[in-house]
Amino acid sequence: MEIKQVWAVYWSATGNTRKVVEETAKALADKLSCPMNTTDFTPLKARETGLSFGAGDLAVIGTPTYAGKLPNKMLPYIQEQIRGNGALAVPVVTFGNRSFDNSLAELCATLEQNGFHTVAAGAFACRHAFTDALADGRPDYGDLAQARELAVRAAKKVQGLTELPASVQVPGDAAAPYYVPKGTDGQPAKFLKAKPKTDLSKCCNCGVCARVCPMGAIDPADVSNVPGTCIKCHACVRRCTRHAKYFDDPAFLSHVAMLEQNFQEPKENRLFL
Fold it and tell me: Rounded to an integer, what is the distance from CA 177 to the centroid of its chain?
């Protein structure tokens, strides 16, 4: 089957999903001898318009795992605004060294429903957005090598196709509920309303946090004010050069401590073809 162009398409608040998706797409474009294009729908403005693909396109589409599924605030955009129109797809999810649970199954099912034909898929362990104690430094060289391996195997599969492929099979239940975060006491940790705080003694009011927030939740005129919906993506925390952003919600901190206590063992990536 002839592919005319490869696309790297992703939502990546802290940059790790971007790294995996772009590495996979670059290797695919190289193996298939076609150009690569990039579409980042992380910024709020980028989601004001939809994305449409078609026959001859192969899109590597990735998101992180939030509570065992796709980020719930991004799901409507993926469901309603990303159209395959017969394009091939390689769904990719990243996860913070706990589990990708049902996120990859949900992404595959959503893309198939939107007119894509999935040919391969992958789940990659990356540094957790909440803490450096889990998978720090990942995706590392080995992880990106596996992303390239996924691309090489997917390219070989695509080159051998004489008709549209059956959907790639991945574990999980696309319709399963979200994972319930727990604290160190083993009870559900309720931090839905938690928002980042600002250490005003460190903040220089540069506005980076407001610009990188994928929800537009931070007031650019007063970055200590967060009137919008916070999804705990940690883009503001990770991108603040003064380390002025932080979370102090007790339930949230208890959940982070639980993760650090129970999920230190490095998790393996999973490739599906």
Answer: 18
